[in-house]
Amino acid sequence: MLLMVNSLLQEYLFRDLKRKLILIENTDPSFDWIFGHGISGLIIKFGATNSHIAIQIAEFDLPAAI
Asked: Which of 18, 35, 53, 54 has the most other CB atoms within 10 Å of its CB?
């Protein structure tokens, strides 16, 4: 299942993100909460390989496309 997350307010709307592939337009360090939900992977429209989110993706060993 794919979910588009475009606002931190949606953290409260999407309580069950477990095993879901998340689509995000862009991120900042405030998106750390998403890693606590057991997601399957991330697709991010805008970002860089040395960005905060890319480093976290590597730390959590998640599949991702940036």
From this structure: 53
Which burial class, exposed, middle or buried, applies to 21 when counting CB atoms under 10 A from its CB (0-12, 13-18, 19+)? middle
**20 class by beta-carbon count within 10 Å (0-12 exposed, 13-18 middle, 19+ buried):** middle
Which listed residue (20, 35, 51, 52) is catalytic?
52
Cβ-count burial 30-63 (b if 16+ within 10 Å, e if not): ebeebbeeebeebebeebeeebebbebbeeeebe
Show pLDDT as tens, one digit a residue, over the chain (66 residues).
Answer: 555 565 554 555 666 788 888 888 888 887 888 888 889 999 988 888 888 888 999 999 999 998
Q: Is 37 a catalytic residue?
A: no
